[in-house]
Amino acid sequence: MQVKHGPFLTWTMVALTLTTGMVEAVSFLVLGPVFTAVQTGTMLLLSFALAGVAGLSTTPCLASLAGFTVGALLAARFESRSQVRGRRWFREALLAEGLVLAVAAAVAWGVERHGESPAGRHHMVTGLVGLAMGIRNVSTLRVGVPGMPTTVTTRAFTALIGGSPLAVDARIASGAGNQVRRAASVAAMFAGGLSGAWLLHDGRLSAAVVLLVTAVLVVAIALSFALVPRERTSEAG
Questions:
Q1: Which residue has the higher pLDDT, 35 or 171?
Q2: Helix orientation angle between 154-162 and 176-200, rounded to the nearest 10 degrees
Q3: Count of other CB atoms within 10 angstroms of residue 132
Q4: Residue 5: which of 134, 157, 217, 178 has the closest Cα?
Q5: How many of the other CB atoms lie within 10 Å of CB of 80?
Q6: What value does the mean pLDDT of the chain take?
Q7: Is 161 helix (H, G, I), strand (E, B) or coil?
Q8: How far apart are CA 223 and CA 75, in angstroms?
Q9: Is the pLDDT assigned to residue 37 strictly greater than 90?
Q10: pLDDT of amino acid 193
Q11: Rounded to whole angstroms, how far apart are CA atoms 118 and 104?
């Protein structure tokens, strides 16, 4: 089954991008420093840690990479089989992601940073969140909404600049619709990171609660597909 790129799916991707910002706030500010969705950042932090940079550790990075790898492998196999059988794999993948995030929230209960070095439970939560984000990355890659991978905004930001009247790059698709989608993607990532950091700041909410809120949002997005006519979200198959 191949998902169409209608308005509902576009705004679904914007909402998922928002949750990425929230997840990365928890990952970087409480579990690490580490990233769980943006593996480019994790690779760089790992290289810095190997170089002996103070305040960085290889263990959170390795936990994130391991979890992400497992999640991506499982998602690729599951979604391929579901697509052959004509099932709504994207919704199921989102439900799986939300479930893993909920488990991560349960494991994270009582885990706080407060300046100490990450411990075993931190790394366990990092691995679980990385697993969920591995599922997310495969799902959004398969959906293939242009400029909206939900876990990075560099390309969307670049296209937003290149497609502006100031640049007029003929190789970048212009038009108000494309620009709005790119701007929404960048804004959603920023808003997610801002809201996640604000909720964690001064102990307003624990990391576990922020992860649980994120899990609920992802599950709600998945369930919302039941309210949308089939022809608006998928090809027959």
A1: 35
A2: 140
A3: 31
A4: 178
A5: 13
A6: 83
A7: helix
A8: 19
A9: yes
A10: 95
A11: 15
Q: How far is the C-alpha of 115 from the C-alpha of 211, rounded, in Å?
A: 20
- Measuring CA to CA, how many Å separate 34 from each of 46, 49, 131? 9, 11, 14
Tokens describing residue 220? 């709600």
CA–CA distances in Å: residue 124 to residues 38, 107, 121, 188, 206 = 18, 8, 5, 27, 16
Instruction: Give burial (CB, 10 Å; 0-12/13-18/19+) of 50.
Output: exposed
Which two tokens mark 109? 């209960």
- 8 Å CB contact between 1 and 88: yes
Instruction: In whole angstroms, give the CA distance from residue 61 to residue 57.
Output: 7
Give the pLDDT mean for 4-23.
Answer: 86
Q: Any idea which residue has 């059988």 for tokens?
A: 85
Q: pLDDT, tens digit, for every residue of 48-60?
A: 999 999 989 999 9
**Is the domain defined by 7-227 classed in CATH 3.30.1050?**
no
Which single residue is written with the structure tokens 């998602």? 75
Contact 52, 116 (CB under 8 A): no
| Other CB atoms within 10 Å distance of the CB of residue 187 | 15
